[in-house]
Amino acid sequence: MAMRNAYVDQFPSEARLISAAFWSSFLALAIGGSLGLVQALHRTDYLRFIDSVDYYTVLTAHGVLLAITFTIFFLVGIFTWAVTTSLDRGLEDLRFSWAWYAMMVVGTVLVGVSILGGVVDSIDMQADVLFTFYAPLQAHPAFYVGLVLFVVGTWLAGADWFRTWWAWRGENPDERIPLPTFMTLTTTLFWYLCTLGVALSILVLLLPWSMGIVDSVNPLLSRTLFWYFGHAVVYFWLMPAYMMWYIMLPKLSGGKLFSDPLARVVFVLFLLLSTPTGIHHQYLDPGIAEGYKFIAMTNTMFLLLPSLLTAFTVVASMEHGARQRGGTGYLGWLKALPWRDPVFTGMALAGLMFAAAGFSGMINAGMNINYLVHNTWWIVGHFHLTVGTAVALTFMAAAYWFVPQVTGKQLWNRSLALGQVLLWFVGMTFMSNAMHRSGLFGMPRRTAEPQYQGFNFEPAAGTVGEINAQVALGAALLTIALALFLLNMVMTTIGGESDAIPDNTYAGTLSGPEDAPVVLDNLKLWTAIATVLVVFAYTLPLASIIDAGGLFGPGIEGFQLTIGIDPAIVLESVREVMP
Amino acid sequence: MASATEKQETDRVREIGHDEYDPVGTAILIGIYFLILVLLWLFMYFVEFLGNGPTVVGALQPVLLGVGLA
Amino acid sequence: MNIHTYEKVWLAAAMVLIVGFIATITYGAVGPGIAMIDDEAGSIDPAEINDDERFAEPGVEHVGGNEYEVTVVAQAWSYSPAEIEVPANSEVTFYVTSRDVTHSFSVVGTNVNTMVIPGQVSEMTVQFDEPGEYGILCNEYCGEYHHTMEGKLNVVPEDEFDLTELSVEAPDEVDAGNETTITANVSNGMQEDLETTATLEIGEQQSERDVTVAGDSTEQVEFTVDTADLGEGDHDWTVTVDDYEESGTLSVVADDGNASADGGDGDA
């Protein structure tokens, strides 16, 4: 045991915290992922055991548990690992750290219970509002309170990482910020910037309205504040995956990171441009002038730059590793990569899927082409490649390395892990290509039924039946992959301690921080510029929305559109509104 | 921090430094990716999108090309 | 900073790609003239929709020439009107708003697609060159029965399109021997004059009247019916104007001085 130098040996207390965060994440993945299968089989009409009206409760849980809970619990674990490992010092005060973790758990439970109330009669709550909770659809106040607690928990986690860095800087005033810590801090900074929007929306608009303190809401305002946060949040999930590609993939390939300076440039660009892009989710919204949409598009398009740079740097680092391992030729080196390693292969396949997602993202970013794809199944195909594969598959592959690190136990079954990442890739290929294609002939997202009464969808190529079959098959493969992942995690955790855990290390660099201009480490400067860009992008649209509709809107009350609870009330209100 | 970076890699057969390394394979792969992006973009915009008319047009703007480009 | 030559080339290529994308989108705006949904149509209080000039009676209106306006009110879980008919070779401006939650108004298989947000009016101008039948669906979750929210848009050949409406006023019963009147109200929603013929068929008789209805107005066409020609009994009648017709039954009853006989507005 003395020779072993895993994370758990270096930072045993932090390892327990990270373990807890990972398991919270896996639990959310297990529930949210299984619900995904229920939806896929229901909407394609292969197997139905819920009522179509309950589909949306299931969809809300799927979205919140996977997009928020699974991703963010995992990334607070990764970021805690990154800061402590790269600064080589523990967190300042573990009681504080457990407090933010507990806050995130309580927030999740509140949100989860309020969503569950949509299908369980004994819980007198509902939150059938989907992941986007667009007002005037209204959820129980517990849903909003839970979201706030969860977000504040992540704020405190960010504060924890900053505290650790400040303490380190006090002792190392002249050192460059180690790359993993740099990545964590820049990501945390734009997370603070973007979550201000959703926090304002919930605390000022939605929570008081759901509690009856104010009796109206401005739907476009709360929607715009949601998307102010809603696009940056995708980079919040993505940055830890990027971190893994930058600091783990080169090492796993047997080489070094090609360029530390460019990695810093990339993360600075994400800090600058993640937030002033949110209006690209509102290209088809009334009440926002075309000029503001064009500005959001320009920012979004330039946000492609850091991702395109990442593609080069990461592949070049892998090639470096492959050539050091004896790989030769223009492309022959690809064979020298460690394809039998599930951690490497999972991350590499996730990166490959992200290249495809990059393309559909470029389409989504294009302002007027949004008429073609907006709110169609294309969008769902896109984000199942991004958060559902680039992030989720990278996290699962990372878990095969991290869980042994934080538990001191060897991965239960490496071959199973390799099969699992391949299966995820194959399953997502089926599901995502079908979703993308169906969007092009107008199949909508977020609906419980495969077809409508008065018209048929007319695909240019293929058939609706073939699309549905691919989605159902893909979802089934993904669920099997999910089960295999969880099995491997459980068996690893209940296994015995092992001496064969690799050292806790990350990749070295070919061109190191000494080549990076010092100004890149000036976080205050970049935060200030990021804030200015946000002010430019959002002041005028928000002012015109508030000017037109008022802060609280023109007397718009909450809707909980269900006829299951009391049909009489709904029928009466329908009669009232019929002209 | 240096202690945390990888020093030993058992299956490494040679050491390649930054200056002696040209990522030519990466350049080829990324070049192929670039071509795919350009071609798919053109296909999506001019065939899938502009061929999917009718499309929302400005009431006062001249319509030079109509909507049935494909 | 130590950047490899390949990486500099890639950086330049990436910038070309980004600028090319923005250029394509800009071309779409100035070439084919694609306009985004914006804030031009202003805001509206959802509680006031029934009193709103534009939305009180949603439907198709002729503006002039080949221009039409279509107003649509979306609500859980339907559109009003549920079925829209416009002619081919037309320029149609849609105004859509919501009575309750956020919906969308998306014409399947086209690039006509907008969010419909309560408090806001979405305005879209669309040119329909060819006849066709399209489905309309809501692609934003709007409550339990979201998946049932749909409508139809029919683009019909120009010569099959009009905005003519016919309504007929006729008595149910008339005393034998009296004359009575069947009145056809022909309204013309188009801005141009409508020249047409109204036809009444009753029993074995048929009468025709040519009528010219000015743009955006209504004309009354009166047919005088003499019961003497019909005889006692029930007589089916049909008024026809172009493709529109309305039917009913007129009972001619014996005027035997019985107090119960009370029909007819004749003057004999």
TrEMBL record, chain A:
<feature type="transmembrane region" description="Helical">
    <location>
        <begin position="61"/>
        <end position="84"/>
    </location>
</feature>
<feature type="transmembrane region" description="Helical">
    <location>
        <begin position="182"/>
        <end position="206"/>
    </location>
</feature>
<feature type="transmembrane region" description="Helical">
    <location>
        <begin position="140"/>
        <end position="162"/>
    </location>
</feature>
<feature type="transmembrane region" description="Helical">
    <location>
        <begin position="343"/>
        <end position="363"/>
    </location>
</feature>
<keyword id="KW-0472">Membrane</keyword>
<feature type="transmembrane region" description="Helical">
    <location>
        <begin position="226"/>
        <end position="249"/>
    </location>
</feature>
<feature type="transmembrane region" description="Helical">
    <location>
        <begin position="20"/>
        <end position="41"/>
    </location>
</feature>
<protein>
    <submittedName>
        <fullName>Cytochrome c oxidase subunit I</fullName>
    </submittedName>
</protein>
<dbReference type="GO" id="GO:0004129">
    <property type="term" value="F:cytochrome-c oxidase activity"/>
</dbReference>
<feature type="transmembrane region" description="Helical">
    <location>
        <begin position="415"/>
        <end position="435"/>
    </location>
</feature>
<dbReference type="GO" id="GO:0016020">
    <property type="term" value="C:membrane"/>
</dbReference>
<feature type="transmembrane region" description="Helical">
    <location>
        <begin position="291"/>
        <end position="315"/>
    </location>
</feature>
<feature type="transmembrane region" description="Helical">
    <location>
        <begin position="96"/>
        <end position="120"/>
    </location>
</feature>
<dbReference type="Pfam" id="PF00115">
    <property type="entry name" value="COX1"/>
</dbReference>
<dbReference type="InterPro" id="IPR033943">
    <property type="entry name" value="Ba3-like_Oxidase_I"/>
</dbReference>
TrEMBL record, chain B:
<keyword id="KW-1133">Transmembrane helix</keyword>
<feature type="transmembrane region" description="Helical">
    <location>
        <begin position="27"/>
        <end position="47"/>
    </location>
</feature>
<protein>
    <recommendedName>
        <fullName>Ba3-type terminal oxidase subunit CbaD</fullName>
    </recommendedName>
</protein>
<keyword id="KW-0472">Membrane</keyword>
<keyword id="KW-0812">Transmembrane</keyword>
Automatic annotation (TrEMBL), chain C:
<dbReference type="GO" id="GO:0005507">
    <property type="term" value="F:copper ion binding"/>
</dbReference>
<dbReference type="GO" id="GO:0016020">
    <property type="term" value="C:membrane"/>
</dbReference>
<keyword id="KW-0812">Transmembrane</keyword>
<keyword id="KW-0479">Metal-binding</keyword>
<feature type="region of interest" description="Disordered">
    <location>
        <begin position="248"/>
        <end position="268"/>
    </location>
</feature>
<dbReference type="GO" id="GO:0004129">
    <property type="term" value="F:cytochrome-c oxidase activity"/>
</dbReference>
<dbReference type="InterPro" id="IPR028096">
    <property type="entry name" value="EfeO_Cupredoxin"/>
</dbReference>
<dbReference type="InterPro" id="IPR051403">
    <property type="entry name" value="NosZ/Cyto_c_oxidase_sub2"/>
</dbReference>
<dbReference type="InterPro" id="IPR008972">
    <property type="entry name" value="Cupredoxin"/>
</dbReference>
<dbReference type="Pfam" id="PF13473">
    <property type="entry name" value="Cupredoxin_1"/>
</dbReference>
<keyword id="KW-0472">Membrane</keyword>
<dbReference type="InterPro" id="IPR001505">
    <property type="entry name" value="Copper_CuA"/>
</dbReference>
<protein>
    <submittedName>
        <fullName>Cytochrome c oxidase subunit II</fullName>
    </submittedName>
</protein>
<keyword id="KW-0186">Copper</keyword>
<keyword id="KW-1133">Transmembrane helix</keyword>
